Model the fold of this input.
Amino acid sequence: MPKLKRIHLTRRESQIMEILHRHRRATVEEIRAELPDAPSPSSVRKLLEIMIERKLLAREYDGPRFMYFPTAKPEDAGRSALKDLVRTFFDNSPSSAMAALLDASANSTLSDEEYKRLSALLKQSRKQGDS
Done:
């Protein structure tokens, strides 16, 4: 698996990325509608321009307006966010994070398919650790 590039995002940039990953693509007004204490349209446009310069976003002209979208694949962004979460809240311990996830979902059971997938990943991780 390729090493993920660490990207620092400001609070606003994180909020924008969350909106865009959820919607896949959005206009300035659609982004503003979901931002807490939304800044002016020109301020949002400026933030989006900065994020485009940093190659975090891209845009396409769609009729009378631009549509903005993340350049990273959702699964790559998810892995990066999860790595940050594990480092920040679980002392960089994947097993602690997994235990918390399983504990948090105690009301729902793992399907046989999910259990097999997790078992295979754990076995693979153990083999990599032994080599």
